[in-house]
Write a structure and sequence with these properties.
The longest helix is centred in the N-terminal third of the chain and has 29 residues, at about 10-40. By secondary structure, the chain is α/β, with parallel strands linked by helices. The strands form four sheets. The protein has a ten-stranded mixed β-sheet, with helices on both faces. Strands 10-13-14 form a three-stranded mixed β-sheet. About 35% of the residues lie in helices and about 15% in strands. It has two domains: about 1-40, no CATH class; about 50-355 and about 435-470, Alkaline Phosphatase, subunit A (3-Layer(aba) Sandwich), CATH 3.40.720. Helix 3 packs across helix 14 (about 320-340), helix 4 runs parallel beside helix 7 (about 175-180) and helix 12 packs parallel to helix 14.
């Protein structure tokens, strides 16, 4: 890092005065912030009292630390605040851990292997869902489709214990993360029957769509009708107590005591920034419905809620939509906090991170999606001119290490209007068709009974063990 004096242009006595003033402001602000955090903290409860009656686990797909930080600022600035001292709904949870995300054969993981670790308690190969790892894929096929040596899914364990189960995702319900609740597949791509490798099909391997219709949670909400045939859905809906809905209006009229399957789009649900509320319910609305429906059964429940499209926006290097979907996740967590009682363990985590960065030296309150303006201590406000790279061009605070919009010497000069537009793709350093996941640790936040187990630096499969321990599952 360059010397601060060179970076900010501090000169003489004016700099000293500015620094003293800034120090005083920070001290005053910190005292206010500490009071705010103390007053807003999650109420104290006996987090070691087990078992928990209910579990709600949120997975922000691709929600690494940089995504959380940017979302905190974006959300705050959306309220007209500076943003940096804003607080997301899960950031006052009493317990926190850092989670190692690697797969058994991959340093940087995918959602299939990581969701398996989170929900089932063991790591596996990249791309595999609830199938024990092996260097020989044919052996994985045999163990999952023939000898049935794979461990039961969280869905099966929960149902065996008499718990109700809810599953919500803004992705296709047969996509990697939601499928890890109920399905087993050597390849996450086996979403429908035609996707299965013919060699594996000979051994009786079933698609994730077929497995969902056989092992359906009490409430299942998401996208992905294209992975089911009309015949499959019609046959499922004819079963006693089953209700299938495909639009928001029908969903809002559904009785809460039925087994509900709601598929609102052909593929993934819309980004929250583009969602039509008359056609697709929000993540918060789906969360509220599911908690109310399952709590009324008084059996205890397990609910997985995935904000799946945070990941997709990052892959497209579109920070705006990633931030909007983070706000949708935040709203859903707030619903869970408002509705769940002291007998509920709430966990918020990510399956993996993304190569998403927050950089430069932008001034406090600089638009998180905007171009960088450095602090100007002499003026007591952000500099009038944008910070520039060695080619003399401004740059954004947010960027990606790889992706489709590479930054080069002859790239057009950026403007604030351009970079803060909804469809802008942040610049990258390595050109790839699609931005990739990252391999660093991700956070796990927890509150409620069993949350005392969430601490330190843990392996991702330990989350599965915490879940099973907290719920008293075998």
């Amino acid at each position: 890092m360059p010397k601060l004096s060179a970076e900010l242009g501090i000169k003489g006595i004016s700099a000293v005065l500015a620094l003293l003033f800034l120090t005083a402001c920070i001290a005053q602000h910190d005292s206010k912030r500490n009071y705010r955090l103390e007053s807003a903290a999650t109420p104290a409860s006996d987090s070691s009292k087990l078992p928990a009656k209910n579990l709600i686990i949120f997975i922000g797909d691709g929600m690494g630390v940089s995504t959380i930080t940017a979302a905190r600022i974006f959300d705050g600035q959306s309220k007209g605040l500076s943003g940096e001292d804003n607080q997301l709904a899960f950031e006052d949870f009493n317990n926190l851990a850092l989670v190692k995300t690697y797969n058994t054969n991959a340093q940087v993981p995918d959602s299939a292997g990581t969701a398996t670790a989170i929900l089932s308690g063991y790591k596996t190969n990249i791309g595999a869902i609830n199938v024990k790892p092996n260097t020989d894929i044919s052996k994985m096929v045999l163990s999952s489709c023939v000898t049935k040596l794979t461990s039961p899914t969280l869905f099966k364990r929960a149902k065996k214990a008499g718990l109700s189960v809810g599953l919500i995702s803004t992705a296709r319900i047969t996509h990697a993360t939601p499928a890890a609740m109920y399905g087993q597949a050597v390849s996450r791509d086996w979403e429908q029957k035609s996707d299965i490798d013919p060699r594996a099909a000979k051994y009786g391997c079933k698609s994730l769509a077929e497995q969902l219709l056989k092992n359906t949670p009490d409430i299942t909400l998401g996208g992905g009708t294209s992975k089911f045939t009309d015949e499959q859905l019609s046959k499922w809906a004819k079963k006693d107590g089953h209700i299938y809905v495909s639009d928001a209006q029908s969903f809002r009229a559904v009785p809460k005591d039925k087994t509900v399957l709601g598929l609102f789009t052909e593929s993934h649900m819309s980004y929250d920034a583009d969602r039509d509320d008359s056609k697709e319910p929000s993540l918060a609305e789906m969360t509220a419905f599911t908690i109310d429906a399952l709590a009324a059964r008084d059996t205890g429940y397990v609910i997985l809620i995935e904000a799946g499209r945070v990941d997709h926006a990052h892959h497209d290097s579109n920070a705006y939509r990633a931030m909007k979907d983070m706000q949708a996740l935040n709203a859903a967590v707030q619903v869970a906090k408002d509705k769940a009682g002291d007998d509920t363990l709430i966990m918020v985590t990510a399956d993996h991170s993304h190569v998403f960065t927050i950089s430069g030296y932008p001034a406090r309150g600089n638009p998180i999606l905007g171009l960088v303006r450095n602090p100007d201590p002499e003026a007591g406000e952000p500099a009038k001119d944008y910070a520039k790279d060695l080619d003399g061009k401004p740059y954004t605070t947010l960027g990606y290490a790889n992706g489709p919009n590479i930054r080069e010497a002859d790239s057009p000069t950026l403007t604030d209007n351009l970079v803060q537009s909804d469809n802008y793709q942040q610049q990258t350093t390595v050109r790839l068709e699609s931005e990739t996941h990252a391999g660093e640790d991700v956070p796990l936040y927890a509150t409620g009974p069993g949350s005392h187990l969430v601490r330190g630096v843990i392996e991702q499969d330990e989350i599965g063990h915490i879940i099973h321990t907290a719920l008293g599952l075998k």
